[in-house]
Amino acid sequence: MADSSSSEGDQKAVSGCRSDSRGFRLTKEDRVRRSSEFRRITREGTRHRTRNFLILTLKNQTERQRLGLVVGKKVGNACVRNRVKRRLREYFRLNRDLMPPETDVVFIAHKGAASLDMHQLRSELDRFFQKMLRMCRGARSSG
Fold this sequence. Notes:
alpha+beta, four-stranded mixed beta sheet, 4 strands
């Protein structure tokens, strides 16, 4: 019995699972969850438009980027909306380095977001965040 009671941590260390590393996880602290926070970001944040998303950004008081998602019924039925949210969470999780540090990022999906595959979504958002980072770096170097 002592042999079969190996700890879960030992099993994960052996498996080499990258999802255990802190940088790749999406925790509660990594998400905008309260309606008051969404209202504040909507009111005070900067609005950016891509073809299929409205993206709101606002500096926050935490040391991390946080994600907020708004996917309304106009996007599609529950299955479609959940797929869009899963893809956005995955994009955020894997591409935090493209996003400005200490910033809340809220994605508001529009109707066309439902027709995007992961490659198209990644391409659209990569273009946006690379452009945004160039603007942020330019503002810091001139100020």
